[in-house]
Design goal:
Layout (H helix, E strand, L loop, with lengths): L2 E7 L6 E7 L5 E7 L6 E9 L4 E8 L2
Antiparallel strand pairs: 1-2, 3-4, 4-5
Length: 63
């Protein structure tokens, strides 16, 4: 399994978004993703626990 599904809440409109995380990029990742609802950019801080198959995503508004 190289991808895990995760969700984040947009820092702008507070709507939930679903994304796919490539776990081969490491257990700690940072990327920018536009909200599928309001199109505003979110900086995502991603933490992957490959053993448990868990993904934690924290979203912040891009400055």
């Amino acid at each position: 399994m190289t991808e895990l599904s995760a969700t984040f809440v947009c820092a702008h409109c507070l709507q939930e978004n679903e994304i796919l995380i490539d776990v081969t990029e490491g257990s700690k990742q940072t990327l920018t993703e536009d909200c599928t609802i309001c199109c505003c950019p979110n900086v995502l801080h991603i933490f992957v626990d490959e053993e448990r198959g868990d993904v934690n995503v924290d979203a912040q508004a891009e400055e």
